[in-house]
Amino acid sequence: LRLLPRQRYLRAERAEVSALERKRNILCCLITRILKVEKQLHIDNLVFRVIDACQKGDSVPGLQFLSFCCRSVDVRSCVLHLLNQGYLRRQEERPHVLEY
């Protein structure tokens, strides 16, 4: 038997996965950070605030060295992730309002 060398695309995939995980972690941190201050916020306002923080970058510690495009789909995906984890909750009478 002869072992084949590792394929280069596998290393590229791992790097992409690592970058996506880092992006998700940063977005989740921004979401929780904003909601800790506001206590409750409409989901659309939260999305706009997170995107604005990503665009400014220099006002957020750790973000100035990372460059990534932050889209509303990414933020909403992280909101759903945090809802499933139990870090955030929706108001029963107003499901579009999120609470920390």
UniProtKB/TrEMBL annotation:
Stored SUPFAM superfamilies: Winged helix' DNA-binding domain
Domain Cullin neddylation, first and last residues per copy: 19-96
Highest rank taxon of the organism: Eukaryota
Protein's UniProt name: CUL9 protein
Organism: Oreotrochilus melanogaster
Gene name for this UniProt entry: Cul9_2
